[in-house]
């Protein structure tokens, strides 16, 4: 289950690995063992049991799930500031001559230099500081806020809040002062009593609005404090950032069949106004965010990881995202290199019309001083040589001592060279000698074929061979002795009776492997032929 390192596996090895994992899950195979001899649970997912690629793990293990970089000597703690330990009553040898503390010397003393040091007065001996020595780990060395007390930041917050309150109070006083001055000026005027009464009412309303608390007047700047949230969060502040002038998504198009609005997630994926002018639309649906920016790059990265996994590479986007991103970057670099190589090959073969090479003057201006005459049909009569069309292949190039090109001769549905009448391409030219040799070989082949056809017409007579009874050729002077033949027949009858009743066979059997012509003839005469209709009458 826990892969040691990222290695390429064939399809057969991958299938065997899956079968082994299923057998381990079912309990049919023993569990995998790590470096320390502990069994690894086969039900642990692969993205948890497989070690990251940059660890170069050679054996399966679960150490990467623990603090494998932790060192008991390292710590993240910080010095205790202002802690005092022991305060002596008199000066001690080796202590600071200025304050009397034994934890530092006079040179590094942080107190104000006394006119007469504690070494000579033995008065106001400073307490000893707490001296600590420890090694910081990787995070502790690089933590810029290590040892910082967060409670000290409350003073900074209090300073900013007091400054903000003073600014608001000053602005409110200035606003009230301006309104009162404007009201007093209008009271002095005698004309326009009706207009003056209406303005007085408006100014009074403005004064009342200015006296109202600013946090209650503007809902946008309202700050709400949450202590016990539904998600279990801690105390925090939330500012209402909704602008009331914005039109809600579901009010952009009131058609029932328009884009669907999900009230739970407040999302509308499709465009509510697809037929409107794109320049006038400020909202085109939530799907626009998925098809632009880094979302599209992340989608392509996922697709590349899936395709690489299908082709046999051990890559997983969720288990090893850094490895997947590095492989995707290397893939894009190789792809661009292949594109550039292909482009260079095409430009090298066909040329580049967009290059900065200067064109000929005749082609650039489209005119020349050469006089050309044309007829009524537009054909050239005089002034320019007729150029024959040329092929992209090489022409009039003779190889291997040939005086003609390949394809200048045709015979029996085959192309060849006319100079030597050969039908084998890239062969060496033999000239007239080769033609005469080819004709002689053709005549000889025709004569052989005619002789073969004449021989096939005559039937072949096979000589009949007389075979002996035991399978060899029968000599011409072979003569069988009648007395010996009768004795051989008696021996054959006795052997057959003995085969039928094995009880008559003696204990000591003498065997002779010498076979004579009479014995073979007797065996042949007594042998039963299964296709003989008279076989039942043979004794």
From TrEMBL:
Signal peptide: none
InterPro entries found in the cross-reference section: Slu7_dom (IPR021715), Splicing_factor_SLU7 (IPR039974)
Keywords: mRNA processing, mRNA splicing, Nucleus, Spliceosome
GO molecular function, one term: pre-mRNA 3'-splice site binding
Region (Disordered), start-end ranges: 22-42, 178-211
Domain named Pre-mRNA-splicing factor SLU7: residues: 136-408
Pfam families assigned to the protein according to its UniProt record, in alphabetical order: Slu7 (PF11708)
Compartments it resides in: Nucleus
BP-aspect Gene Ontology terms: mRNA splicing, via spliceosome
Gene Ontology CC terms: spliceosomal complex
Biased composition (Basic and acidic residues): 178-193
Source superkingdom: Eukaryota
Function: Involved in pre-mRNA splicing.
Subunit: Associated with the spliceosome.
Family: Belongs to the SLU7 family.
The protein, known as: Pre-mRNA-splicing factor SLU7
Organism, scientific name: Panicum miliaceum (Proso millet)
